[in-house]
C-alpha cells in the first residue's frame, strides 16, 4: 500500500508558475514509475506527465510539453511537477500517482486573472 499527499496547488494568473509536490509513504517509492494526471470540471481525467523509477524515461502530454517539468527525489519519496506559463485551460484537480495504481486525493490548480 502507498499513501500519497499532494501540495502546492492554488490560484495563479495566466503566465504564472506553480510547483506541485507529492510525498509518498508505504512501499518502496523508488521501485515504481510515478506521474501526474489532472481532471478539469466536466472532463475526463487525463495524463499529464510520468517519470520512470530511475528518472531516465520521462513523458509529457502534448498540451504541457515545454511548460511542465516532472521530477522525483527517491531519497525523499517525493515527486514534483513544476508548471510554468500556465494557461486557463490548465485549471484542474491534479493527482499524483505511483505506478498508475495508487493515487493521491488531488490538489486544485486554478489559472485565472
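Sequence proposed for the structure above (113 residues):
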Amino acid at each position: 500500500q502507498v499513501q500519497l499527499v499532494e501540495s502546492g496547488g492554488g490560484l495563479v494568473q495566466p503566465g504564472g508558475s506553480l510547483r506541485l509536490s507529492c510525498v509518498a509513504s508505504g512501499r518502496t517509492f523508488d521501485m515504481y514509475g510515478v506521474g501526474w494526471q489532472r481532471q478539469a470540471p466536466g472532463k475526463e481525467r487525463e495524463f499529464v506527465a510520468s517519470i520512470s523509477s530511475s528518472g531516465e524515461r520521462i513523458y509529457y502530454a502534448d498540451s504541457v510539453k515545454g511548460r511542465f517539468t516532472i521530477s522525483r527525489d527517491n531519497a525523499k519519496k517525493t515527486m514534483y511537477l513544476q508548471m510554468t506559463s500556465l494557461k486557463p485551460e490548465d485549471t484542474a484537480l491534479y493527482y499524483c500517482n505511483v505506478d498508475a495504481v495508487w493515487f493521491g486525493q488531488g490538489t486544485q490548480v486554478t489559472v485565472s486573472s
